[in-house]
Design goal:
The chain has five helices and six strands; from the N terminus they run ααβααββββαβ. It has 142 residues and is an alpha+beta fold. The chain binds zinc ion (3 copies).
Length: 142
Amino acid sequence: MPQLESLASTLEARGHRVTPSRAAVIAAVLQQSGHFTVDDVLRRCRGTGRATVFRTIRLLTELGVVCRVLLEDGSLHYRLSRRGHHHHLVCLNCGGVRDLDECAVGDLVRELSRASGYEIEGHWLEFYGRCASCRAPVPATA
Ligand SMILES: [Zn+2]
Ligand SMILES: [Zn+2]
Ligand SMILES: [Zn+2]
């Protein structure tokens, strides 16, 4: 996982000032396990405004340190990640989220763009279902 110091210097190299409250938000994000919301981070950073938390998480998303996961109920969560553009497998039973290694729909996007004349700049794609351990077979009662 990336360290607070290296993230702070990366942000500063890109012209973002790392204030003490931003540093607190970054530290809180790095402590998260699994997926989390802006409110989860807010609870760990008492005294930091929601807007600061939101903007800092957005910067971390742009750096590729954090990725966004849209849960099936429509809520937006975040999760530590070091990968570029990718998609997720979301388990509806245990709530587990897994990063997929790469985007599988690049060809489809190019095809859509050709067929529709749209210049496509981005897309969301999450897969919802049950993970391998949640779909373990229930013992048969016969
Ligand atoms: Zn599961
Ligand atoms: Zn991810
Ligand atoms: Zn994709």
